[in-house]
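Query form — protein SET domain-containing protein

QUESTION: What is the three-dimensional structure of this chain?
INPUT:
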Amino acid sequence: MSVCFGADNSPEAVGKWAKKCGIFLHPDVAFLVPTKTMGLGVFARKPLKAGSVIVSCPFARCISPYAEKNSVESPCVKALAGMHITDNVLFVVLRLMAEAVRPLSPWMPWLSACPRMPNHFFDVAAVGPVFGLAPSADTGKATTAGVPLKWTGVSQQLHDLNLEGRWSAAQEVIRRHPEHWPEEKATFELFCECLAQVLSRNFYREEIEGREGPYLIPCLDIINHSFTANGKFEVRGGGRKHPMEFCVVAAREICRGEQVLCSYGRIGASRFVVEFQFVTDSIIKEDMLRFSVDVIAEMTLALISLESESLSCAVDLANIQRRIEWLQRLGILFDEGFYVSRLPSAAAEGGDLPASTAKEIQTLFNVFYLLTVGASTFENLTRSINREWQVERKGEVVALVLRLLTMRAEGARAQLAAAEVHFAEAQHHARRKMLQMSLNSELEMIQLLQKHLGEPC
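ANSWER: The structure tokens for SET domain-containing protein are given below.
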């Protein structure tokens, strides 16, 4: 398939297009500069003072779910509005697909400068066996070989994307509006490419109530990630006199030759792998062990199955889900589940834990105790506890959590083995390397937790 992405990353072409569109690029900053390890980046040609606006893009030049229905520049928006799409990510993906196949799209100079994102995990037919997503591996039973593959961080991120559902919805739009999405061009391959672009380049602005995003913001999306960022995102204007603009501003003085970097947030290695297609040692150091709501339910059922071959005295899946809903209403558990941050090595050896990490570990204990405890005990607790309640870490409760961590580690090791088989070919080299880094980090986090809880590793 021939795609526009990465066809022309000329700084001059993008600069001319940006000026025409009212996008401000600081004259003392070089854009689309090749780097050794981070693709294309943004560098200071001269020293920049703190507070300097490095790049600024008007709201009107963004691709988002909030464009006017009768937009002349984006005729596909009217068709999308008529389809009543409530999935904002899918809306933006379809807009991007329409612009990518549209002759003389006004966004083409920017799209051509966006590097391709080929190392995604979205083709379930090709990568499904590694993540327990292929039909042959997914039996829906917690004790099968397929389900532990779903328990890893990367698998959870892929599950959240609802790839099958989104592609099915996209196909309906393509079928009904071939004038914007010609069937021979609006392929699954293009859908995956555009989804990868949206995930890696989108911005969410929580301060804009009712219009949180996602936004694709040309030229701001060139700036690379660092946890020690020297730039920051800002939203300016928005009133009648001053239209809304998205900016990157120097957070401190930036030296000549220094790369401009912003933080994408502390989101965990698995999300970097799935959404940004890269992972680094600095990301691994800030990694988190995630337990999504679906994985919490599956692991609870598996724990119960290990305790007793007959489930007569245990909780069935429907009751587990009801308990999860109760935990969410109480505020112990959130829609995305919960996270446990990577423990510092000193903490695993008996040193002090950061207070936030200690609270996350306590959530791990609270959640799985409440989901596995007998019905009468659970009913009594629901009448007496609040979100600040903590289960006492008695021997049997610690043993429960250690069994849980062992199961999670088995899933990570199984996925590493599956990757060696299914990602053996050269075309999957980058995928295999990213996945290995994420899974090895997951195993290290589990081992640190096990050591902290007193189990020799």
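ADDITIONAL NOTE: The radius of gyration is 24 Å.
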